[in-house]
Specification:
By secondary structure, chain A is mainly α. Chain A is built from 5 helices and no strands. In chain A, helix 3 crosses helix 5. Chain B is an alpha/beta fold and 588 residues long. Classes of the chains: A mainly alpha (94), B alpha/beta (588). Chains A and B meet through helix 1 and helix 2 of A and helix 10, helix 13 and helix 15 of B.
């Protein structure tokens, strides 16, 4: 396994949060976008994942915006992703 | 195979509220403490607790711990141990004030004292009227608590092992616990963490249900570890449910929606609550509404392609009222249910929220097991606190705000007990048994060598579906029987899961396989215990035995993994210093 893959797996794991709402959104976001994020987007995602859960939830629900434009773009993708009842909740990422 | 070993005075498994409160106590006593956590400590599930923490401070109106004790005993439907409940309610004031001094940003009254608000089930003068007992930090009480405790732990030099997963307990011939075997996710390496004391603080296991408010990390790791080490699990049939979580997601829809005029429909568009509660209809109490919803689904009137949810209609309220009176509901429904409630009903289902049972402990935090002659004895070296423990202060049902209190009181108490026990008894590390790491290494070896089998996702989904269907908020005897048979099969299937990715480094598939082992132990304990308890008490509600049966069932269940054997132990009806509260019908 390459160093890059290892970083990806670490980011993937850090999408496990303390709040269910974030698990659902991040899980759907990973499924939809993770494979296609470029290096800059991955950096922005990594930064966002450093936020406390309530802050991240405020971003995702549109109550607040991150300062950095690159992070705003990632948050926009998170907001747009569907966590529909058919796919979410029943399984984790596996 | 030689595996690395490190030694500590104490190991805390889990870095939520109870684990960090205990660790703080231990580190301040200059013990060498290691705290293991699958995620960064402030991302533990305690972060999701909003409501507050109860303590009879009496800042706004008269209150006292004995009233709090009465409310808690009654709320527990008399299954709570009254010695532990007295202990918790008396200690509440101390631990909350202490947390304030640690820097917790509580909301304040104008006079500077901690602001307190009323909360369901908390009353003045033994049930007379609601009392202001809940202390909060806006709607982020759990978040503020975690940050406060984390900062204090950093100052006290607690050593955190972040992104580590504990796999199994180490027990010797005498049954003493000598530490844990754990996995470092970053390297995939397995290590023995030896300690004179091991505290389980791994939280609840609400992910055994397909409808759950719990975060994905809530997989009952401490319960699985205890069960595999031959320690029974107590009162696992008792799970608190909320009537309206978004189907398939678990995110709660506040009861305020029904308060504002929203109502429930079955698949035929019938407002079925008119049949179950003709006067109050959709505003009936939580348990009545949950029971009605479960009955509609059971009898084939659930909506959706699998007929497994109910519709919450509020479009008739109009966009203006919804936006004004129910802020946030529209965005939650859009985000997590893919519906706009202004035009379409929200699919909802009774949703698991909190685990009352757990690893049996006394109010000092020691894990206790039957001694073979009708009493119980501590397991030397093993402690538990928080949602993974059954003290039992919540009995058959938990009062709101008592969960955060439980974390603080019993986190601290277990820390104090460990300090005292180490001083009195355990001076040096005991010799590790030769087979210390055999069990977890065998579990890993199986996953690494399996070349085919079912996916973890598939077995996990079947478990969650089965538990939701057969052992949910309202339980039917025939369905429970089917559920037991299902779970026995699933317990076999989980031993044959297969993961494609065999890499060591940050292998999340491997972590999820190990988590599923723990969930299945929890689910098995739940359904076996629920099937046997032929009464309705607190959160355990059976269609065939609608009443509480104190003659036969005023006792705690103990489930043993080996042979799914059940045994029972008496409820402690005698408090520490006061008269006990005799069981009475629980009417609000």
């Amino acid at each position: 396994m390459t160093g890059q893959d290892r970083t990806l797996d670490r980011i993937r794991w850090r999408c496990r949060r303390g709040m269910l709402e974030l698990d659902l959104v991040l899980n759907a976001f990973l499924a939809r976008h993770f494979e296609t994020l470029d290096a800059g987007q991955l950096d922005a995602l990594r930064e966002l994942l450093e936020c406390p859960d309530p802050q991240l939830l405020d971003f995702v629900m549109g109550h607040d915006e991150p300062d950095a434009p690159a992070e705003r773009d990632i948050v926009a993708l998170m907001r747009a992703v569907s966590t529909g009842t058919a796919s979410a909740g029943a399984t984790t990422t596996a | 195979m030689a595996i690395a070993k490190r030694q500590f005075d104490a190991i805390v498994v889990g870095a939520g509220g109870s684990g960090m409160r205990a660790a703080l106590e231990l580190a301040q006593a200059n013990l060498r403490v290691a705290v293991l956590s699958k995620v960064f400590p402030t991302r533990s599930h305690t972060v999701a607790a909003q409501g507050g923490v109860s303590a009879s401070l009496g800042n706004d109106e008269p209150d006292n711990w004995h009233w709090h004790m009465y409310d808690t005993v009654k709320g527990s439907d008399y299954l709570g141990d009254q010695d532990a409940i007295e202990f918790m309610c008396r200690k509440a004031v101390e631990v909350v004030v202490e947390l304030e001094h640690f820097g917790m940003p509580f909301d304040r009254l104008d006079n500077g004292k901690i602001y307190q608000r009323p909360f369901g089930g908390h009353t003045s003068n033994y049930g007379e009227r609601p009392v202001k007992r809940a202390c909060a930090a806006a709607d982020r009480t759990g978040h503020a608590m975690l940050h406060t405790l984390y900062q204090r732990n950093v100052r006290a030099h607690t050593q955190f092992f972040v992104e580590w997963m504990a796999l199994d307990l180490i027990r010797n011939q005498q049954g003493d616990v000598l530490g844990v075997v754990a996995l470092e996710m970053e390297t995939g390496e397995v290590m023995i963490l030896q300690a004179k004391a091991t505290l389980l603080a791994t939280g609840g296991a609400g992910r055994i249900y397909s409808a759950s408010t719990n975060a994905f990390i809530n997989t009952g790791d401490g319960l699985g570890m205890a069960a595999r080490a031959g320690i029974p699990l107590e009162d696992m049939e008792f799970w608190q449910f909320h009537p309206t979580g978004v189907a398939g997601a678990g995110v709660l829809i506040t009861e305020g929606v029904r308060g504002e005029g929203g109502f429930l429909l079955n698949k035929n568009g019938e407002r079925f609550m008119e049949r179950y509660a003709p006067t109050v209809k959709d505003l009936a109490s939580r348990d009545v509404v949950s029971r009605a919803m479960a009955t509609e689904i059971k009898e084939g009137r659930g909506a959706g392609k699998d007929g497994d949810y109910i519709l919450l209609k509020l479009d008739h309220l109009g966009a203006e009222t919804i936006d004004k009176r129910l802020p946030g509901i529209r965005e939650i429904a859009k985000k997590f249910a893919n519906v706009d409630p202004v035009t379409d009903p929200i699919p909802v289902v009774p949703t698991c929220h909190y685990q009352m049972g757990g690893v049996p402990t006394n109010y000092s935090g020691q894990v206790v097991v039957p001694d073979g002659s009708g009493g119980e004895k501590p397991v030397k070296g093993l402690y538990a606190a928080g949602e993974c423990a059954c003290v039992s202060v919540h009995g058959a049902n938990r009062l709101g705000t008592n969960s955060l209190l439980d974390l603080l009181v019993f986190g601290k108490a277990s820390g104090e007990t460990i300090i005292a026990d180490l001083k009195a008894d355990v001076q040096s590390q005991q010799e590790l048994p030769a087979d210390a790491a055999d069990l977890p290494l065998a579990r890993l070896a199986r996953l690494d060598s399996a070349t085919s089998g079912e996916t973890v996702a598939q077995v996990g989904a079947d478990m969650r579906r089965s538990m939701q269907l057969h052992c949910g908020v309202f339980r039917f005897p025939d369905s429970l029987g089917d559920g037991v048979r299902n779970m026995l099969e699933i317990a076999q299937r989980v031993q044959h899961t297969y993961i494609k990715d065999k890499s060591k480094v940050f292998n999340t598939a491997r972590i999820e396989a190990l988590e599923l082992d723990n969930l299945v132990e929890t689910a098995m304990a739940t359904i076996i215990s629920a099937n046997a308890r032929t009464e309705s008490r607190g959160a355990h509600d059976r269609s065939d035995h609608p009443d509480r049966d104190d003659v036969n069932w005023l006792k705690h269940t103990l489930w043993n993994k080996e042979g799914n054997r059940l045994e029972y132990k008496a409820v402690k009806l005698k408090p520490l210093t006061v008269e006990g509260f005799e069981p009475k019908p629980r009417v609000y």
